[in-house]
Task: structure prediction
Amino acid sequence: MKKIIIAFTLLSLLSCGREEKKTSADFDMFVFSFTTDAANFSIKFTPGDTVYMKTSPVDYSYSLLTEDKRDSAYAIIKEINFSKYDTMYTNDNIIDGTSFKFYKTKNDTVNWVYVYENETPKELYKAADKLIQLQKGQKWVPVKGKQDFDNLDYIELPNPLNTIN
Result:
């Protein structure tokens, strides 16, 4: 009986001593939208491991992130210091090109940055590239119904080729 009590006590102490490594999100919702001639999508991150993708006004998918990818996403999002940037970086002389938008909500606070030009702080391009790489290789599963991506102003997602539901 003593051996059982000692074993139970040791197991309890060992399990209490372990700290779970959990990265917490400093956002309620974060949406990254990206548009070029070749690719158009918006990805919505929420606290947790599920991400949603929107590729047209009616096409939605979801994917589950591994813990490492989730932590990477949170780190990338945390790097974006919205107070440091203008809300819009645009150039009226560009007819077609790459545009992207970061959109973050926390409680009642909304921050966003839209980019459609070359004279943008390099950190924003680096964050966009990291988020694009992060979503590659994910298995996306179609979702029936609508997902709220909040404000997608300035992002033009193509209309679906097949609108039959």
